[in-house]
Amino acid sequence: MPFQFPLQAVLRCRESFERRERQRLQIISREVIKAQQQWERARVERANALSGLQQKLRKGSTAGELQFELFCDHARVRRIAAWYERLSKLKELQHRQIEVFRHTQQQRRIIENLRERQRAAYLLLQDRRTQQQMDDRYLITHASQFSKS
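and the corresponding structure tokens:
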């Protein structure tokens, strides 16, 4: 009779939970990367705009142009801050999801280790039974030799 783990359904359920949490973690990680890229892009955009503003100031520009550039710069700063806030929230969410994933992984490993220990005990018992059967056959086939001695 082959080994049957009585908690196989629980193990499959734990594996399913782990897969689901891993997928959630991957989704969040992709969102973190996107937010980080957007934040970096916004910072580069602002740096380029400030560089352009410096060149305009050297060449000379009107107060209206300067005021417009400052207004645009404030908008860029707000966009950078918004991306940074989103990135911070996503990293916190990612950290919490890592903890959830590790917990589900640990729960699956506990059941898996139990299965492996039960399987090892089952195989040991099977080996002992096989050896006992071989010993019994040997004794039966050689019983006449033992009785003559």
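(Above: one complete record from the training split.) The chain has a mean pLDDT of 94.
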